[in-house]
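Q: How would the structure tokens look for this protein?
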Amino acid sequence: MDQNWSRGTADTDGSCEKGRNKGSGPVEVQMCQSILPCHANHQGELGAGQLLKWMDTIACLA
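A: Here is the predicted structure in token form.
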């Protein structure tokens, strides 16, 4: 499974500085996930269950 994610703090201008913790301010987490045929439903689209699983994973990282 090809999965990449990064965590950084979001500044007020929308930029993100990776690895720098500014306390309890806003946090931006990004995840890049390759969609494979096993993630698709019978119509060839990403299944809602898989999308929710990825959303839950990224929410836990934030």
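The CA atoms of residues 9 and 27 lie 4 Å apart.

The two ends are 21 Å apart (CA to CA).

Upvote if useful.
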